[in-house]
Amino acid sequence: MKKQLILASCLLTPLISLCQDNAETLSHGDTAWMLMATALVVLMTPAGLALFYGGLTKSKNVLNTIGMSYIGFCIAFLAWVVAGYSFAFSGDGLYFGDFSNVMLKNIAIDDLTGTIPTYLFVAFQGTFAAIAVAIVSGSIIERVKFSTWCVFALLWTLFIYCPIAHWVWGGGFLSNNGELDFAGGTVIHINAGIAGLVVSYMLGKRKEFTSHPSRPSSVKLTVLGSALLLFGWFGFNAGSELAANFISANAFLVTCISACAGGVAWIVTESIDVNKPTLIGSASGVVSGLVAITPAAGYVDASGALCLGVLGGLVGYLGAVKLKVMLGYDDTLDAFGIHGLVGILGALLTGILANPAINKGAGLLYGNSAQFMVQLKAVIITISYSALGTFIVFKICSLITRGARVPEAFEYKGLDSMIHGEKSFDLNEEVIEPSNNNN
Questions:
Q1: Less Cβ around it within 10 Å: N or C end of the chain?
Q2: pLDDT attached to residue 160
Q3: Residues spanned by the domain of 50
């Protein structure tokens, strides 16, 4: 009998140990998915957003516009690795992280966040910080110094983006209050949209600004950029679960539903308003639908996604086309209209449409009226901090670079040639005469 007990104990001990360590066990499936999701989000900024923005701007500023997204990604990601991750995800403070993970110190190669390597989590979150600051560039292209933008990308990432990321995802006070933001409605879209509006007012209108939108340099580039954003957004939203499971599958599905609904809603509204359903409109509507679903992707079902997409496309159109003309501000590529306003819509609707059958947290439609107020409070706090913080950061950047605005001649001649010495298409290529040598 004693031998049998010893044998049973030997057999059960590994099973007990496995159960105890299960939460700290690397999942190869989750890791493989998150490697792919991170790569998808990387694609969104230097390719998707850069082309989306580049196609919308004037031909003389295309390279500068693309370059702002591209270098913004590089600067923000480096800032994230050096200090941003530590500011956002270390410590237990309610308002700000600490310095314990600066330059990723105290993180071993085999450390885990959930079931994936912590290094992978750092990289995934770094791509979020990078696209957030790149979105802001859409409000101020065609008139801001490239040097000012580079300094702004660094400081804004560290001191505006990182604190809000800590509040919502790093154990800060907004997450403790129960705010639902699955993939960045408040952290990224409201934050970046409000920042874009603030800096556009601070910088002033373009010399060639009119109340009517300027002709885009390439509709094809914008549509391609929108398609790449749609593709990358599956990593953005479905990857935010940090696992390959039922919730990530739901996030994948509802992301596509909302994007399609946003594209259709925009061109229907456009057709009714101006009788011209444009490809620019459908591309912008898809992005609006993606922005709307971002905070809700892990919490709503298909019907909720359809509602978010339709309303996102409608609000995106009204914000980017009607409100800008009505108020006369020069948000060049509608970062505020598409990201700020639609991000606010998505955050608030999450408090209404969140379905407890999908994930933890219930919205107003499912009997939890308090959730809407939680979402509203988070939206107001994010707007306030982003607006004030961005104002201060941009003032500092202007002092560092001795003014934030390019000379007037640069605006008229184009920033591609005046700042970078390059052109999108060099149509004046040197003609080489054929040689008369018959040998």
A1: C
A2: 98
A3: 29-418
- The DSSP annotation for 254-297 comes to HHHHHHHHHHHHHHHHHHHHHS---HHHHHHHHHHHHHHHGGGT
Residue 424 lies in a domain: no
CB hemisphere CA count around 198 (13 angstroms) = 21
- pLDDT tens for 101-130 read 999 999 999 999 999 999 999 999 999 999
What CATH number did the domain enclosing 89 receive? 1.10.3430.10
Whether 336 and 200 have beta carbons less than 8 Å apart is answered as: yes
* Residue 435 CB burial class (10 angstroms; 0-12, 13-18, ≥19): exposed
Q: Tokens 């600490």, residue?
A: 98
Q: How many domains does one find in the chain? A: 1
* Predicted confidence (pLDDT) per residue in 163-216, tens digit: 999 999 999 999 999 999 999 999 999 999 999 999 999 999 998 887 666 788
Is 2 a domain residue? no
Question: Which pTM was predicted?
Answer: 0.92
Residue 429 domain-assigned? Answer: no
